[in-house]
Specification:
This protein is an alpha/beta fold. 28% of the residues lie in helices and 17% in strands. It has 5 helices and 6 strands. The protein has a 6-stranded parallel beta sheet. The two termini are 17 Å apart.
């Protein structure tokens, strides 16, 4: 089965992940600013980058600085904005993305205050890439941070655990 590796921006990802073999048909997905400590994982490969709208000018998107990093990569990286709108995103980045995810609809599906980029991506891939197994790399649902003001990571963890119990093709490593 083909795999989607969703790489968390978690600088404490175990080093044994570095040796995880990936196939050329697998996809590596990263989020927002792409943590400096995780960029080398999977040979620095990035196939899809999710950038989350934050409504804060002038960049408007978390991790917009990662665009320059992405442009340096040799492969064509698909950049998918979460929230905001496609016209604004394309104007700011100079890209011509056609894909755009409405974050508010994901919030409603899962009844959360504000879905994290990870939960948005999991929801997107379950629908759009049903032939792939989703491998969550370094996802700890911010268990060491209890007082987060935006995301409901404890709830998101339960959602993912429920997916796994129901047999959805999701694995945590």
């Amino acid at each position: 089965m083909k795999k989607l590796y969703l790489i968390a921006n978690n600088p404490k990802i175990k080093s044994n992940i570095l040796s995880t073999p990936i196939h050329k048909t697998d996809l590596v997905i990263r989020f927002n600013h792409i943590d400096q400590n995780t960029r080398q994982y999977f040979n620095g490969r990035t196939d899809i980058l999710f950038l989350r709208y934050n409504n804060a000018p002038p960049s408007y998107y978390h991790g917009l600085s990662a665009i320059n990093y992405i442009r340096q990569l040799k492969n064509n990286v698909e950049v998918i904005p979460i929230g905001g709108n496609t016209t604004l995103f394309n104007k700011i980045t100079g890209l011509n993305t056609k894909q755009h995810i409405n974050k508010e609809s994901i919030d409603k599906i899962w009844k959360v205050k504000s879905a994290s980029s990870g939960l948005v991506a999991i929801t997107y891939f379950l629908k759009e890439y049903p032939e792939y197994k989703i491998v969550l790399v370094g996802f700890n649902f911010h268990s060491e941070q209890r007082n987060l003001r935006i995301h409901e990571f404890a709830r998101e963890k339960k959602i993912v655990e429920t997916f796994i119990k129901k047999g959805y093709p999701i694995e945590l490593i």
